[in-house]
Write a structure and sequence with these properties.
Helix content: 10-25%
Number of strands: 36
Radius of gyration: 29 Å
CATH topology of the largest domain: Methylamine Dehydrogenase, Chain H
Shape: globular
């Protein structure tokens, strides 16, 4: 019996071990268990900070977080000293990457405390936690030398200077090259922390059930033991069952091909665009899908093409028309009750609308700037400090707008505009650019950073799909479920992020569709985008969750069956011994 329980308990760690083994090629040394953080520490191969953090996430963790002097001392005494010389990477005389970084990317960021003081305050940890403990080198670090040092290292016997005590920290460029030559130049090894999971309730329940099963099988109360084991496994299986989706082909408008669904409202109405047959892709026509029918929305007067990007619960649709008269330009519109109304501006696009009728987009009246439209007034949102133009892509129920702000050199950062202020959301730790496309009622934001889908929540930005090289998040609902797409060797593939995990949506449908992109998700979990149907045609699609039997229903059925079985056995025993 003891042997059986031990095997069951070991199953708790199988998924984590498999993840580490899958990416073991990046590991140079480890693990060393850190009891303070309940994590296994590994040293990964020499590379840039961003590459090291990517490998850390593939292993199931992040570059190491240090929250106290004791944790810092543990790393010095158990990692840096022991991992030098024969049998491991020689860490002597080179810094080692840790999870510290400055997400603002603002060069020479001075504050009230003097030169570089704001730069020092901006540093956070890659796992999203605040940097409350700091052990900067006392020789003026962090100094943001040359305005490009945004990533943290921990020093180990730095050869070029006696002013670099072991265990102190330095800010360093992304590639680790500080210009000093010799051992000071990167790339550097990275120190990774992979959390060790606690046994879950369901696993412990399964172990307990197995114990009762084995015990009961050896004694006369076998029926009860079988019942407990069966119901426990049934509950675990139901709890882990993934939601499946039914695919609805939305088709296209007459005379069109290659439709795309771009937004969905609470009642399941869908908007998007499709391409005219025979065109090169420039001739587009907006559509509204509802009650099983697709209808064209037409254009504004003088318009040739149209696109529909957003829809609210009242059925108001926003988008833009390409007009030929009086001038060749884009014109934002709001469509309601069969009528499209121009919102004004020049070269304007309306991209999202909330249930209050507020609209987010951009126009080119005083340079291309994001706007917020409400009560007949279009408000210019401007740009982030020092930038030249901006785009508004998403809006939530409270009127907060997200988008991207650009410099003249095409560098750009995601922004959040709320209460009259535009805030820079920064980037993922190893990235330099970002743009935001969706925001929910709770203020959670999705987008991409250097082609990595992200979720921004409570001041921290996380990578939603670290296992794929390129990915984009485009929509989020109020439950925090996000959708988008990643790029695979065989093309784009739609994904769903839910409960901390990203899943290829193609694995959740029982059809021969190829789901390429997902753009939006409503609070009922319905998803829209496009893919290739079984006939090979690109069509707009709607994914609807298929209800699973609840845990309690399955438990009830199982309990009833086992009770009936036990009752029949008891009746037989009673009849046999009490005729």
């Amino acid at each position: 019996m003891r042997r059986f329980v031990t095997k069951a308990a070991c199953a708790v760690f199988l998924s984590v071990s498999a993840t580490v083994q899958a990416y073991a090629g990046a590991i140079c040394w480890g693990p060393v268990y850190d009891p303070a953080s309940n994590a296994d520490l590994y040293v990964v191969s020499k590379e840039s900070w961003g590459q090291a953090e990517t490998e850390a996430m593939q292993l199931g963790g992040n570059l190491v977080t240090i929250h106290s002097a004791a944790e810092n001392a543990f790393i010095v005494n158990n990692i840096l000293q022991n991992f030098t010389g024969v049998g491991g990477p020689n860490l002597s005389a080179v810094p080692v990457w840790i999870g510290l970084y400055d997400p603002t990317g603002i060069a020479n960021d001075d504050g009230p405390g003097g030169p570089g003081s704001q730069h020092a305050a901006d540093f956070v940890w890659a796992d999203g936690s605040a940097a409350t403990y700091r052990d900067w080198n006392p020789d003026g670090e962090p100094n943001d030398h040359n305005g490009e040092e945004y990533y943290g290292t921990i020093n180990w016997d730095f050869a070029e200077s006696s002013l670099w005590p072991v265990g102190t920290w330095n800010d360093t460029p992304l590639a680790g090259t500080m210009g000093g030559g010799g051992n000071s130049d990167g790339p550097y090894y990275g120190l990774v922390a992979v959390p060790v999971p606690e046994p879950s309730t369901l696993v412990l329940l399964g172990i307990g059930a197995a114990t009762l099963f084995a015990y009961g099988w050896r004694r006369r109360g076998r029926t009860l033991a079988v019942a407990v084991a069966f119901l426990s496994s049934l509950a675990a299986g139901s709890a882990y069952a993934q939601v499946r989706y039914a695919v609805t082909d939305l088709g296209t408008l007459p005379g069109c091909i290659n439709s795309e669904a771009l937004a969905i409202n609470a009642s399941g109405q869908v908007v998007g665009t499709c391409q005219a047959v025979g065109s090169s892709g420039n001739d587009q026509y907006a559509f509204l899908y509802g009650n099983g029918k697709m209808a064209g929305l037409g254009t504004l007067p003088g318009g040739a093409d149209s696109w529909a990007y957003g829809i609210n619960s009242s059925g108001q649709v926003v988008g833009n028309t390409y007009t030929l008269t009086p001038s060749y330009s884009y014109q934002a519109f709001l469509y309601c009750n069969g009528t499209a109304t121009a919102l004004g501006g020049f070269d304007s696009v309306a991209h999202a609308v909330n249930d209050n009728g507020q609209v987010a987009g951009w126009n080119n009246v005083n340079g291309t700037h994001a706007f917020l439209y409400g009560n007949g007034t279009m408000t210019d949102l401007g740009t982030l400090p020092g930038d030249s133009f901006s785009y508004g892509y998403g809006i939530n129920a409270s009127g907060s707008v997200v988008g991207a702000s650009y410099t003249n050199t095409n560098s750009y950062h995601a922004f959040l505009y709320s209460n009259g202020k535009m805030t820079n959301l920064g980037t993922l730790p190893w990235c330099s650019t970002s743009e935001a496309y969706g925001i929910n009622a709770g203020g959670q934001v999705v987008g991409d950073s250097d082609g990595h889908a992200f979720l921004y929540s409570n001041g921290a930005m996380i990578d939603l799909d670290p296992l794929h090289g390129t990915s984009y998040a485009r929509g989020i609902n109020d439950s925090g479920q996000a959708v988008g797409y990643f790029v695979s060797d065989s093309g784009d593939r739609a994904f769903l992020y839910s409960g901390g995990t990203s899943t290829d949506l193609n694995s959740l449908v029982a059809s021969s569709w190829t789901l390429e992109r997902a753009y939006a998700i409503n609070d009922a979990g319905q998803i829209v985008g496009y893919g290739y149907n079984p006939q090979g045609q690109q069509d707009a699609l709607l994914l609807t969750p298929v209800p699973e039997p609840s845990t309690f229903v399955l438990l009830g059925i199982g309990a009833a069956a086992l009770l009936a079985y036990g009752w029949r056995r008891d009746m037989k025993v009673s009849y046999r011994f009490n005729p």
